[in-house]
Amino acid sequence: MEVELKEMSSDLETLKRSLPDPSHHASIDKMQLRVQHLTNLAESAPVRRSKVKDMSAEVVDSNPYSRLMALQRMGIVQNYERIREFSVAIVGIGGVGSVAAEMLTRCGIGRLLLYDYDKVELANMNRLFFRPEQVGMTKTDAAVQTLSDINPDVALESYTLNITTLQGFETFMSSLKNKTFCPSEEGSGVDLVLSCVDNYEARMVVNQACNELNQTWMESGVSEDAVSGHIQLLVPGETACFACAPPLVVASGVDERTLKREGVCAASLPTTMGYNALKDFFPTMEMKPNPQCSNAACLERQKEYILAKPARDAAAKAKEKEVSAIEGPVHDDNEWNISVVDDSELVTADIRSSDALPEGLVRELPSADEFHKPTSPQETINPVDDLEDLRKQLDALNAD
Amino acid sequence: MEVELKEMSSDLETLKRSLPDPSHHASIDKMQLRVQHLTNLAESAPVRRSKVKDMSAEVVDSNPYSRLMALQRMGIVQNYERIREFSVAIVGIGGVGSVAAEMLTRCGIGRLLLYDYDKVELANMNRLFFRPEQVGMTKTDAAVQTLSDINPDVALESYTLNITTLQGFETFMSSLKNKTFCPSEEGSGVDLVLSCVDNYEARMVVNQACNELNQTWMESGVSEDAVSGHIQLLVPGETACFACAPPLVVASGVDERTLKREGVCAASLPTTMGYNALKDFFPTMEMKPNPQCSNAACLERQKEYILAKPARDAAAKAKEKEVSAIEGPVHDDNEWNISVVDDSELVTADIRSSDALPEGLVRELPSADEFHKPTSPQETINPVDDLEDLRKQLDALNAD
User: Fold this and answer.
1) Which UniProt keywords apply (chains A, B) (predicted)?
2) Are A122 and B61 inside 8 Å of each other by CB?
3) CATH for B162
4) A266 and B34 in contact by Cβ < 8 A?
5) Cα three-residue angle B129-B130-B131, rounded to 5 degrees
6) CA nearest A276: which of B339, B164, B94?
7) What DSSP character marks residue B49?
8) Could you read off the pLDDT tens digit of each residue along chain A, which spans 400 residues?
């Protein structure tokens, strides 16, 4: 706009010089003033902050990273600036994905890959991030617009596509494999994939891609009534994949689109981020991979993980020795009073290796062992009695 | 800008007609095209969404409230639209306050009162909400700019002042008492005060105001290392006020400004919202008011609360009867499978009425009872032994 106005001004100047009659000059001078005013208006429009070459720890108001670099000085992270080497892919730029993207952008993440096929609508304004003036833009483009204003240091890639289509999946895979940003990167070209989608089909596609690429990812979901949700960390081969313990809707092969009710709109709130908000209940549990998983790539990763166990154990032992030899007592001169808790102290339960579930959780279905438990001949001797029992049980259930 | 451009266009038209020489017309036509182009640019600038008279539950993309009104259809709230009658005051528009304000704005709250004396700096960009182009604006004005764009239905009041000054406190009090927005409102003119400040002095001022006004409020805080925090609900007379169980820094009368270390900058992250993030630990406890509280208004509220007990009990009993008579079994036809948990099932502990603390919490100081426990004459018989013991204990502590 400023360029156009400058040219306009020079056009007026030229015209003025070519006009012999001074009576016309006043009218041109008036227009020159207008152009000047318009230029002032255009220049007062917001200016973006310039890029920062190195993250500084200097405690000044003009340093966008001072509060983050303080984490390093306080011993919370060893080398904060390493965050600039990391790439995170976010699939689904809705209520969860957009906020994850904004948080990572403000933290100064190196690179974000954003995937979504949807457009911004006024109906999305009940969640954080998007603004009404972005209605009609694709979610990925609107996100790039906002995020690049917030932090121009982040490399942003916008993929407006549906990963559940054949072509979308191909672009998704090749973008995850692209190592141009950090050629020394092991594995795929990204460090983490965040699944922030709203349907099981897309989750299964992310699962497929991450199993194939041996890519660590996190799954998230918010319930239809907006007051509870879940977060799951998936490390191929090491923890259950999404197909190892699929939700009933996937396990039973039902097309979820047939489950959608006419005129029903899922509720959502700007506050729900993955726990039961009404009960203030957020249990944690571990899930081991399923040796009978239906996903072939998952089975391969499981095999690799088992084969690598001796090497992993040796490395862990060596590191333990090294740390205790070099460091001595941990946090001896801890000026910030920070204490570190051993992971094993956390309340976790392995639902496969033991029967213990975190407090407040119950099994929806019998475990496979219980299911296949051989029944004694005594128990099946009188089928009529059994049916009678079953009917009574059903009646009791219906009366609840 | 559009108006200026329109006038510019008519100026050019007038000039063209007054020029006899057609050789000048081409130059003016060219400028007309430029003005047209500038007009197009100006018109493509963001347009704000218009106000909404009534909240609609219609499931269409253009309805900013469809996902929120769905909460009503699902039985999570009875009458969602009542949110438009509520006023919330937010003191401190930093990392916590700005996000609370944005969430309430997106939820369609009736009215927000925002208090802060600070300006937006680039150093704030590590937390959500503010944008680099707002640097230099006051936090309250920048917040009103962003929030009114997000939801023009919310009545926003910006108070750029320091509540800990005499004049600031007076304006704070009179703004909380103002009932113009909802004249039928009981008590003060707001329904809730959220304290989102970063120092104890300001918290004690909010405490004073809310005790005087018998105003329910919530206190929040994030630790200096950004990885833990707290939330506290304060109902004057019913729960402990902020002075009933003050942090050591307040109890000991130390001026907290003398505690600030040279060149130290508190860390902060866009993710911390009030719990121990490193330990995933968020215990809950109840705190009864302190009958020896130093705050006179708190003691008055405590007296009123005790005096009102018979009336409160009678009302609770009557309501219980009424509900069980009218409603019958709760959630009989609960199509959304939502279950409601009784508050008493939550893990809570009254630190005054019993010795039980939530798991993982320990007392920093002995309780008053233990402190005043009379020591038996036997125990003080040999002061030399006692000193010896004390020295040994100190040595043992230092060796840890």
Assistant:
1) ATP-binding, Metal-binding, Nucleotide-binding, Ubl conjugation pathway, Zinc
2) yes
3) 3.40.50.720
4) no
5) 120
6) B339
7) P
8) 777 888 888 988 988 888 878 878 888 888 888 888 888 877 766 667 888 888 988 888 889 998 899 888 888 889 999 999 999 999 999 999 999 999 999 999 999 999 999 999 999 999 999 999 999 999 999 999 999 999 999 999 999 999 999 999 999 999 999 999 988 888 899 999 999 998 889 999 999 999 999 999 999 988 777 777 788 999 999 999 999 976 655 555 566 655 555 555 667 777 654 556 666 677 788 889 999 999 999 999 999 999 999 999 999 999 888 877 765 554 445 455 444 444 444 433 344 444 566 676 666 665 555 545 444 444 444 545 556 666 666 666 555 4
Residue to substitute from A3, A102, A265, interface B, most B β-carbons within 10 A: A265
Q: Which of B150, B134, B121, B126 is nearest to A48 (CA)?
A: B134
Nearest to B68 among A35, A65, A126 (CB): A126
Question: How close A384 gets to chain B, by Cα (Å)?
Answer: 32
Residue numbers of B between 152 and 211 with CB closer than 8 Å to A: none
Identify the residue among A225, A233, A261 best suited for mutation to test binding to B, counting B beta carbons within 10 A and taking the highest: A225
Report if residue A335 sits inside a domain.
Answer: no
Structural domain including B115 reads 66-254+264-307
Quote the number of domains for chain A.
Answer: 2
Tens digit of pLDDT for each residue in B299-335? 999 999 999 999 999 999 998 888 777 655 544 454 5
**B167 Cα to chain A: minimum distance (Å):** 27
Looking at A107, A210, A265, A298, which residue is catalytic? A265
CA atoms B358, B362, B365, B371: torsion sign: positive
The Cα A312–Cα A356 span in angstroms is: 27
A182 is catalytic: no
Residues of A in contact with B63 (CB under 8 A): 122-123
Residue of A18, A31, A42 with shortest CB distance to B11: A31
Question: What are the start-end ranges of the E strands in A34-123?
Answer: 87-91, 111-116
B187 within a domain of the structure (yes/no): yes
Residues on chain B touching A15 (C-beta within 8 angstroms): 24, 27-28, 31
Closest residue on chain A to B37 (Cα): A4
Distant-in-sequence, close-in-space partners of B140: CB < 8 Å, separation ≥ 6: B93, B114, B115, B116, B158, B159, B160
The ipTM of this complex is 0.70
Alpha-carbon gap, residue B299 to A171, rounded angstroms: 67
With respect to residue A350, please indicate whether it lies within any of the assigned structural domains: no
Q: Does B231 touch chain A (CB under 8 A)?
A: no
One domain for residues A156 and A286: yes
Do B226 and B277 fall within a single domain?
Answer: yes
Per-residue model confidence as pLDDT tens digits over A329-361 = 544 454 554 444 444 444 333 444 445 666 766
**The amino acid at B391:** R
B354 in a domain, yes or no? Answer: no
Strand locations in B235-342 (E): none
Of A282, A306, A330, which residue sits at a domain end? A306
Residues B101 and B183 reside in one and the same domain: yes
The distance of A212 to chain B (nearest Cα, Å) reads 31
